[in-house]
Each structure stands twice: as C-alpha cells, then as structure tokens.
UniProtKB/TrEMBL annotation:
GO terms for biological process: plant-type cell wall organization. Residues 200-217 have a biased composition (Gly residues). Residues 163-225 are annotated as: Disordered. It comes from the Eukaryota. This is Expansin-like EG45 domain-containing protein.
C-alpha cells in the first residue's frame, strides 16, 4: 500500500469502529422501555388463566399498550429515579425513590391492567396509556423501592423465563430518607394500578416465553386488589 494512502485507510477503519460501537450502543439502549409502575396483590384469578401456577414474581400488562396481552412473556424490570406524569397532567416526583437502580427483577405477565376492557375495578388513570405502564406484584415492587411511594419510574426489557426473581444490585432493605413530596404517592380517588379477573374463554396457548399453562381468557369477572398508592395515604386495606 502506498505510504500516502495509509492515513486515509487508518482513519476509515477508526470511523467504521466508532460507527459499529454506536450501533451496538443504540441497540442496547433501545432494548428498554421506560415508563412507570404501580403494584398489586395476586389472588390466582388473573386474565391469563394461570390460576395456581402463578409464579412469585409476576405482573400485569395494560390492554391499551402495544404487545397486549403478552400472557406468559417475561420481562426484566428495574427502578428508575425520575419524575413523570401522575395521569392527571401534573408531575410525580420520584427522583430519589429507588433502592438501587442497578438491581432488577425478572417477572412473568399473568394478568392485565384494564383500560379498553373496563370493569368495576379498572383504573383509567394508570392503564389508559398517557405513558408506558406496568402493574407489578407487591414483592417485586418491594425489591425495587419502598411501598410508601406507591408509583415509581420503571424500565423493562424482554427476558428469559428460566430464572424469575431478583438480579444484581444490593439489598432491598431500608428506604430512601425522603418521603413522597406533597403526598404524591396517591391519587385523588385512592387507587393505583388495576387488573381484571379471568373469564371462561381462555385456552392454554401461553405467551412468548411462558410455556403452555396460561392463555388470554377475556373479562368476565372482576378481581379485588390492593394498590400501590393506597400506602402513601395510609390506606392499608385489601381490595376496594
């Protein structure tokens, strides 16, 4: 190779390497969806009809959100210190809510957060898509942040169902020193995320990663829940 051309080819190689690295970086960043999360207690009557096969680490997918119903699919979720919409056009301050943003939990989708298919227990504030949302199990929420916050920033990406539960990070014991400002853990109507019970129409078709013990089943019966932001108001009861 002529000596005069070597700098040109060296520069071209460096630019190619930078572009390749940038490409991989964007793919990695795009793996995550950013939104918020409420929490709930399962009673083995979720819309995906897993019944007593519901795992310890579970969540509900809004029926207004892309990918619905996603029954049986698994997602790695982690807390994000951020401020976000409260569903009514104001901002919820959650910039110091997370225990450890490097910690994550792998959950399985076993239920739905109803907006389109509404029932008495629906909550349009969280489920109707002013931003991306997941309704996660109480224990998952407890791994990521204190219950007092009721609603937290969340990010999630697809994951294998081979190993559900916590990954990485430190202990979930101990809450951040600050409390939700201005009682911002609660809604005016005292409800957080919400889901529906299963009906009698479901099959055993599972989800993306979920095997054959769950499938979408319709919306025949409402379920009772306890919701995350009740705790911010000190409402400790179960259900409605």
């Amino acid at each position: 190779m002529p000596t005069s051309l070597r700098p040109f080819y060296t520069l071209a190689a460096l630019l190619s390497a930078v572009l390749l690295f940038s490409s991989f970086s964007s793919i990695s960043a795009d793996d995550y969806t950013y939104g918020r999360a409420t929490f709930y207690d399962d009673n083995q009557q979720g819309s995906c009809k897993f019944y007593n096969n519901i795992p310890e680490w579970y969540g509900a997918w809004p029926d207004s959100q892309a990918g619905f119903p996603n029954c049986g699919s698994c997602w790695e979720v982690s807390c994000v210190d951020s401020d976000f919409s409260d569903g009514y056009g104001a901002t919820m301050q959650r910039s110091s809510a997370c225990y450890d943003t490097s910690k994550s939990v792998v959950i399985k989708i076993v239920d739905s957060c109803p907006c389109v298919h509404q029932n008495f227990y629906s909550n349009q504030r969280w489920c109707c898509g002013d931003m991306q949302h997941l309704d996660i199990g109480r224990r998952t929420f407890q791994e990521l942040a204190d219950e007092k916050w009721g609603v937290i920033g969340l990010r999630w990406k697809p994951a294998s169902c081979d190993q559900l539960g916590p990954r990485g990070g430190g202990s979930s014991q101990g809450a951040p020193a600050t409390a939700p400002p201005n009682n911002q853990g609660s809604s005016d109507n005292g409800s957080g995320g919400s889901s529906s019970d299963s009906g009698n129409n479901g099959g055993n078709n599972g989800g993306n990663n979920g095997g054959n013990n769950g499938g979408w089943s319709g919306w025949n019966k409402p379920r009772q829940r306890s919701f995350g932001d009740w705790f911010a108001r000190g409402w400790m009861g179960q259900g409605w």
